[in-house]
């Protein structure tokens, strides 16, 4: 029984925020640390995540991405990954997004447990600027994470950078060079209004087109697919055949809601049908109140039916959601 919303979009992609806690303080996400909601009993247990994931996969979810906050802060993450990997082959893709800080220590175990892919965030190639953006002097740790992902055999390795005017937009071409030299898929993400510091404003957004043109001028790019389907990124290869890939994710300037196949489960077990939802569906309390499996299925299907047609970032009445990226799961 696949999940469809009222706009006939099929939902195949689930992002699970494992925790809203983080050891970084990225200014565009969680500059002031965790919000007070982060109490242990509110967060879904691994057993609950496993149970719900099995139901989601039975409803046609093919991709699960574990994210946060920083997912590697959840104790025994490989144990959860190994349980979720049991959902293959119906589950086709099990991925992780991490800041990389603790990745080298856990990478081998995660691979053995069945993790298919990893995305590592890297917002500057300069030590001082990395510290300025993330609040932590850990650029070397992130480089080590990328190296360990490679040596353990994760392929492809994706790197995420949020490009913000005046902070790291001068590094766009260097990021592209890094992608070529290290044979990684480098994904450039527009800054979205989901930061807990509420600093976002339109002038800080560096549009996908501008990012593309800056790279293309130095390293000519070739579009990989004519259509991106339900993928968020436009994907490019280097026209000169160099290794590496460029992905451009432009939710602000080039809305891609019409093909969205995603829903999200927050760290405290609420379904969010859009990053920018102002309504959430408290699946955790439903589950904990003793709902049967079929009641849980019904709850999920009902929530999906309420998925918004699109986001409203560019409308004059746009209201930033109270939940931040760290809680929602980016
Ligand atoms: N802590 C992990 C990390 O940083 O990779 C996983 C969680 S983080 C919320 C997931 C992704 O969301 C990261 O690549 C991060 O750069 C991105 N992100 C966070 N806040 C964002 C914002 N306001 N706009 C765009 N992307 C954002
Ligand atoms: Fe933490 Fe990731 Fe948010 Fe940075 S982007 S504060 S690493 S959750």
Order of H and E elements: EEEHEHEHEHHEHEHEEEEEEHHH
Secondary-structure-based class equals alpha/beta
Q: Tell me which CATH architecture applies here.
A: Alpha-Beta Barrel
Number of domains: 1
The CATH class label is Alpha Beta
- Ligand roster: S-adenosylmethionine, iron/sulfur cluster
CA-atom Rg in angstroms: 19 Å
β content, as a range? 15-25%
How many H/I helices?
10
Biggest sheet overview:
12 strands, mixed
CATH superfamily: Aldolase class I
For this structure, the CATH topology is TIM Barrel
Low-confidence stretches: none
Q: Could you say which overall geometry the principal axes of the C-alpha atoms support?
A: globular
Write a brief caption for the model.
This protein has helices at residues 46-58, 77-85, 103-113, 127-134, 139-152, 172-182, 208-218, 283-288, 293-305, 325-328; strands spanning 3-4, 10-11, 13-17, 63-67, 93-98, 117-121, 157-163, 185-190, 221-223, 233-238, 245-249, 262-265, 270-272, 281-282.
Topology:
Elements: E1 3-4, E2 10-11, E3 13-17, H1 46-58, E4 63-67, H2 77-85, E5 93-98, H3 103-113, E6 117-121, H4 127-134, H5 139-152, E7 157-163, H6 172-182, E8 185-190, H7 208-218, E9 221-223, E10 233-238, E11 245-249, E12 262-265, E13 270-272, E14 281-282, H8 283-288, H9 293-305, H10 325-328
Parallel strand pairs: 3-4, 3-12, 4-5, 5-6, 6-7, 7-8, 8-11
Antiparallel strand pairs: 1-2, 9-10, 10-11, 12-13, 13-14
Helix pairs in contact: 2-3, 3-5
Bound molecules: S-adenosylmethionine and iron/sulfur cluster.
Keywords:
330 residues, alpha/beta, TIM Barrel, twelve-stranded mixed sheet, binds S-adenosylmethionine, binds iron/sulfur cluster
